[in-house]
């Protein structure tokens, strides 16, 4: 989430006129994140999140994201529900950009997740994967393994300005992953961006999973690897095996992992670390002037990548399966 496009009250009031939400009471830009413009909107009939889609989100892919959220909400998951316009459409336009509104979910993001919250997240991720098994729409992962080398090519010349020797390290990792990626593992719809700021908790229970705008079809265990990277490293870069054990055990209880998925976890974690290293590097080098957004430092993900490169077997992640 971020604010790239500024929307004045007059434009926003006119926009809300197409929805059955009542008059605008207040609106506040949300600065976290790097992808889209987001506002917290309070209207007479409720509180909503308004998103204007920027950068990587294509307008023709919005039906996938919005219908997936609706599908998961219908299955009882704590996910935002898209708000239809009076004419039934889920997608509108505001300030020249595609836009949509979804329901607001209560809860607080965990800045320093505990093992208990990691277990809650693991259960929620497993439930999400199960709920989406019968979702009929599909979307290729535009930031999957096939996209990593072309993405890095856009930053290759400047990579060493961020960290000396980074270009050569990434080149070597791309070669390794291309030769070892486990393409035949179970696949389905994944969230693909379930970081701590995209999960809400109330009284130590998961109360919401948000920001589905990277959701796609890919390896289910790769989504788990993304979460291990995002939830199980401390601020000093140390890997917390207790959190990892809690997350993976809770996930496995909801959606059992196959032996092949468990064996492949170190490679999947390397791939997940590289994916976020590359996108953060890309954004670090290309923040639009004047944008109300703080780019995320790519360097911690290089340290995580190095950690996973030293993992010989999945048991080193604390898996008690």
Brief characterization of the structure:
This protein has 321 residues and is an alpha+beta fold. It is built from ten helices and nine strands.
Structural description of this entry:
The mean pLDDT is 93. The longest helix is centred in the C-terminal third of the chain and has 26 residues, at 259-284. It is built from 10 helices and 9 strands. It has 2 domains: 9-103, Phosphorylase Kinase, domain 1 (2-Layer Sandwich), CATH 3.30.200.20; 115-317, Aminoglycoside phosphotransferase (APH), C-terminal lobe (Aminoglycoside 3'-phosphotransferase, Chain: A, domain 2), CATH 3.90.1200. 41% of the residues are buried. It is α+β, with helices and mostly antiparallel strands.
Order of strands, main sheet, comes to 1-2-3-5-4
> What name does the CATH topology of the largest domain carry?
Aminoglycoside 3'-phosphotransferase, Chain: A, domain 2
> Roughly how many Å apart are the termini?
35 Å
- Overall residue-averaged pLDDT value: 93
Q: Provide the domain count.
A: 2
How many strands? 9
Query: What is the H level of CATH, i.e. the homologous superfamily of the largest domain?
Result: Aminoglycoside phosphotransferase (APH), C-terminal lobe
Q: Can you tell me the residue ranges where pLDDT is under 50 for at least 5 consecutive residues?
A: none
Outline the biggest β-sheet. Answer: 5 strands, antiparallel
- Overall geometric form: globular
State which percent range the strand residues make up: 5-15%
Q: How many separate helices?
A: 10
Question: What Rg, in angstroms, do the CA atoms define?
Answer: 20 Å
- Decide which structural class fits the backbone: alpha+beta
Element order, helices and strands? HEEEHEEHHHHEEEEHHHH
Helix content: 40-55%
In the CATH scheme, the class of the largest domain would be: Alpha Beta
What would CATH call the architecture of the largest domain?
Alpha-Beta Complex
């Amino acid at each position: 989430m971020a604010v790239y496009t500024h929307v004045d009250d007059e434009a926003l009031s006119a926009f809300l006129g197409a929805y059955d939400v009542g008059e605008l009471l207040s609106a506040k830009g949300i600065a976290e994140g790097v992808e889209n413009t987001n506002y917290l909107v309070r209207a007479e009939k409720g509180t909503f999140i308004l998103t204007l889609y920027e950068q990587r989100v294509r307008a023709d892919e919005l039906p996938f994201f919005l219908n997936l959220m609706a599908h998961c909400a219908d299955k009882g998951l704590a996910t935002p529900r898209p708000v239809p316009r009076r004419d039934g459409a889920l997608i509108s336009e505001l300030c020249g950009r595609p836009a949509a509104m979804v329901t607001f979910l209560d809860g607080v993001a965990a800045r320093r997740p505990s093992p208990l919250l990691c277990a809650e997240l693991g259960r929620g991720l497993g439930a999400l994967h199960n709920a989406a098994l019968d979702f009929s729409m599909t979307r290729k992962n535009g930031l999957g393994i096939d996209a990593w080398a072309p993405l890095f090519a856009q930053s290759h010349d400047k990579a060493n300005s961020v960290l000396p020797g980074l270009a050569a390290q990434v080149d070597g990792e791309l070669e390794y992953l291309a030769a070892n990626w486990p393409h035949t593992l179970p696949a389905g719809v994944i969230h693909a961006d379930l970081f701590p700021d995209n999960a809400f908790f109330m009284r130590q229970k998961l109360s919401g999973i948000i920001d589905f705008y990277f959701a796609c079809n890919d390896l289910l265990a790769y989504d788990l690897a993304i979460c291990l990277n995002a939830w199980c490293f401390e601020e000093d870069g140390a890997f917390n095996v207790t959190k990892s054990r809690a997350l993976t055990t809770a996930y496995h209880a909801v959606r059992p992992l196959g032996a092949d998925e468990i064996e492949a976890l170190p490679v999947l974690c390397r791939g997940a670390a590289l994916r976020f290293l590359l996108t953060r590097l890309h954004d670090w080098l290309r923040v639009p002037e004047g944008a109300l957004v703080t780019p995320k430092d790519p360097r911690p993900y290089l340290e995580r990548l190095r950690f996973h490169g030293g993992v010989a077997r999945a048991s080193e992640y604390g898996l008690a399966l």
